[in-house]
Amino acid sequence: MPNPLESLLEALTLSDTGARTSEDIFTGPSQWMPMGRVFGGQVLAQSLMAAMRTVAPDRIVHSMHGYFLRPGDVNLPITFSVDRIHDGRSFGTRRTQAYQNGQPILSMIASFQDGGPGLEHQVEMPSDLPDPESLPSAAELLASVKHPVARSWASERPFDMRHIPSPIYLGVEGEHVAHQAVWLKAIGQLPDDENLHRAALAYASDYSILEPILRRHGVPWATPGIKVASLDHAMWWHRFSRVDEWLLYVQESPSASGGRGLSQGRIFNREGMLVASVAQEGMVRVPDPSRASRG
Question: Which one from 42, 81, 230, 263 is the annotated catalytic residue?
């Protein structure tokens, strides 16, 4: 397998096809995944990179709303079409459609803004959580597990992720609550490209956002027959921070019903600055829900 960080950078380096109709057309590769489906965070980040290629350099993304329409195939490249919906004096809007075999797999709208002064406030970062250096990595926790998914999580991801209080890969320890926190950081240094860091943060934001739903019901990822799929993803970038430095992803699920669950997240840097907010609804199906703990 290639270096995971190199694979991420390759995936986010899109090719401009030169085709011009009413939209800008780009293509990008799919990263290998053990279950054969494109990772949602990958196509989100690539769709953002495509949209970023069509706006002025000083106009930065501040929000994105995307819907996952079909599972992607890791054996196929992805085509991205960008519609330049609007360019105003301060804001611009782009719609990106991601396609495989001529069918859309993701539809996303992103908004961009020129920087400027304004009112300033934020919620406080939790202050009573352990530092990432004191927590075990996925590689340390899953090194002895002989399964392709565990191997992928342990050594083939471009991000180091360390859970608080503990991960739910194989089991759910402690109280079954609908909240958790995750320290995350790229496994190596990324180029000094702020757009790349924003897109990479969108990529990483999809890894664990639905886990509070599973944690609340005592359902680990290793549950036989479990089915979890992202339905939509929204993200707001508040302030810039590098993703090759530790970030704290605080997550909670306010509701789950009807085979769906909603999770929300806040991402802080180590200085306590609120970097981004995230919301995602996902399909969550457990073979025998009666066995899941109700806390």
Answer: 230
